[in-house]
Amino acid sequence: MPQFQLNSIIYGDCYFLKTNLLMLQQALAELSTTNLIFLILAIIAVCAFEFVNGFHDTANAVATVIYTKSLKPLTAVIWSGSWNFLGVWLGGIAVAMSIMNLLPVAEMMTMSQGENITIVFAVLLTAISWNIATWFLGIPCSSSHTMIGSILGAGMGFFWVHGGHGVNWHKAQEIGLSLLLSPAFGFSLVILLLFLFKTFIKNKAIFKDPSQNNNQPPPLWIRFILLSTCTLVSFFHGNNDGQKGVGIMMIVLLAMLPGYYALNPEIKMEKLELAITTMREATKQYKVDGIFDPHHEALSSLDELESEIPLLISKEKGERVKTRKTIQAFSKKIKPLLNDPEFLPEADQKKEFKRGFSMLKDFTDYAPLEAILLISLSLGFGTMIGWKRIVVTIGEKIGKTHLTYAQGAIAELVAAATIGLSSGYGLPVSTTHVLSSGIAGSMVGMGGVKNLQKSTIMTIAIAWVLTLPVTFIGALGFYYLFQWIL
After folding, report:
1. Is the dihedral of CA 452, 454, 456, 461 positive or negative?
2. CA distance 394 to 453
3. Residue 153 in 3-state DSSP?
4. Where would you tag: which of 89, 119, 333, 383 has the fewest CB atoms within 10 A of its CB?
5. Considering just the CA atoms, what is the radius of gyration of the chain in Å?
6. Reported pTM
7. 3-class state of residue 452 by DSSP
8. Cα gap 368→125, rounded to integer Å
9. Where are the domains of the chain?
10. C-beta of residue 263 within 8 angstroms of C-beta of residue 311
11. In this predicted model, what pLDDT tens digit does every residue of 148-189 receive, in sequence order?
């Protein structure tokens, strides 16, 4: 590479970094001392929620390896904590965007800081309180239900006070369906797989009660299976539950520092022009058949977006917020066309258009590295403490018999597959309920319904039913309390 070109790249990157730092300083300078303190407290509260989530949900991954003597407890929680960290770090942001889109973030970026503080702290205090209460009582309870109920409660409080768009009910319906169906899916699939295991696996050692083995570690091949499933559940727990923390962190950053975070600060604004140009080139041969063509409005909005490029590249807070809204309005119109066979029927054109559209979405659908790192560390360290209360419930109190190697492996395999698949579709699910329902399914598969401890199942079911309404009411109450105070 020629020296002058290398110098140009280095100078360009340094200028980009310097500009970003200046924008961040400007955004922070716009906050009053009180609001800056609330911002710091909000970030700490999000990390606290994810920390509590870690030790509340750790049992879901480590209960089986501990109760089958495959790993010692300390080793298991350190191993699980490490994979939780990696799950958040490497897991993408699809679930985070689903959580973020439950609230009217676009409106929050232009609201007063007092209103944003009210919503954020109503959500976080409710979620943390319910998680700690259920952990203290040793009840496996869903952090996903907790967070979503809190968001819906605060969102409805905002709607009833101010009107507008308090909650994205379409997204809430999608998430609610995934939370409802995933435990039933896990319960049924575990029973089926256990039946297949008993039918086709001739080595019956995997179906033994570990206590019959003088509490010695199981055979190496069984330990490998159990360790693998524990690793997968830990990774996908971070991949799904960790992203919920990332989503809440993004709500905090977008609401309180929109001048910096409204658009991805890690991407040069010139890429926006490139994204629009790429889509324009892909559609230049496409002829719209009059104003009644179903694609007319979407392509017209591309023209509008292109005409505003000089304004969109502005580094002013108001223009950055406007840019975000413009991009999201355009995306809403274009997204349905991407799978329309009549829109850009040439495969190369459609591929090029999707490439430009993906570049455009990178500006609004993102999470900064600092947010992902904070959540990864919080979840990972949280996983390494406080695990014992829930582990005892999972390992000893769901069924009347001791957990066998096969039960542990199948329950975790199904949990990992369910959570991983849901993460791929950007749907939050409850790791707690997926795995505890899987353990319950394995108990039924080994000894029928009579093999379940009804009192424990009833307690978990009551917590499952109560979590959404309790957190909804709690967040609504906190919202009105903070409204009155602030």
Report:
1. positive
2. 11
3. helix
4. 333
5. 25
6. 0.83
7. strand
8. 24
9. 8-261+367-485, 270-361
10. no
11. 889 889 888 888 877 766 667 777 777 777 777 888 888 888
